[in-house]
Amino acid sequence: MFDGKIELADWHHCAAGHQRSIFAHPLYPNVLIKVLKPESRGEGGTRRSKRRLRFLNRFKRFGAYRTFQREVDEFLEQARRFSLADRVELPIPRIFGFANTDYGLGLIVEKITMSNGEIAPTLRELALSGRLTATHLKMIDELFERFCRLHIVMMDVNPGNFVVTDRRGFEELICVDGTGEMSPLHIFAFSRRMNEARLRRMRAKLLTKLAGTLACSAAVSGDESVRAALARYQRQTGQLTRSIGLSPDPAH
Asked: Where are the alpha helices (DSSP H) in 151-248?
């Protein structure tokens, strides 16, 4: 299906994160391609990093592509535990493989869409547009409970990494990015108890970032019960931004 080199100029740049860009194509409605941004990849695929870390990073395998390696490892760990007969719907996208692109190596992943085929909105998009509801906050709690039960390891949380889809006839939350083990000792993969403690912290971090999104001037007023539920996280956001001399309003 993806023989040869893929020219991503023919694809739609549909999303971007800190290190990666994501592309979609109408001829392949069920997949996305994740690639590293040019500024995050050095010569020979090395990872661009602070000067004091450059020497150490020369001896680490996978270079800038360690983020791919972590995501693939986590998917493999979950996939090996369940057969097709188990009918378990994992709260993370499937990984289909790799492709050569004009942006370098690309990771081919499942595209999470709505029932109408449109790409599922992220929690950040819902918060900015005033569509975030108390039900979505409950879904966050339920998702992190599933992560604990399934022992899914995460390396980062961001409102842009979670999407809400109704593709199975009901709304559910899917984590589309940020999974994998960052610890060199793999302590969270080995210890369920330590991973659960980390997931509790990550849930709080996600809610704090959502509160910060609602505090942006670009955010449309929405469900007041959501703001009430996130009030204590909004206070944490305010304390953090004041301590470093910033405003939660990105326009300032």
From this structure: 187-190, 192-214, 224-229, 231-243
Shortest CA distance to 174 belongs to which of 220, 217, 128, 121?
121
Instruction: State how far the alpha carbon of 245 is from the alpha carbons of 237, 248, 252, in Å.
Output: 12, 10, 11
| Neighbouring C-beta atoms of residue 42, cutoff 10 Å | 15
Residue 116 phi, psi (nearest 5): -85, 5
Give the residue-averaged pLDDT of 30-39. 93
Look up the pTM and report it: 0.86
pLDDT beyond 60 at 85: no
User: How many Cα atoms within 13 Å fall on the side-chain side of residue 67?
Assistant: 22
- Residue 202 has what DSSP assignment? H
- Residue 150 burial (C-beta neighbours within 10 Å; 0-12, 13-18, 19+): middle
Whether the CA torsion 153, 158, 164, 165 is positive or negative: it is negative
Q: What is the pLDDT of residue 251?
A: 37
What strands, in cross-sheet order, belong to the sheet with 104-110? 5-6, 95-101, 104-110, 28-36, 20-25, 12-16
Q: Among residues 204, 208, 200, which one has the least CA distance to residue 236?
A: 208
Is 104:41 a contact under the CB 8 Å cutoff?
yes
Instruction: Tell me if residue 127 falls in helix, strand or coil.
Output: helix
Q: Tell me if 210 sits within 8 A of 132, measured CB to CB.
A: yes
pLDDT at 235: 65
Say what the pLDDT of residue 125 is: 97
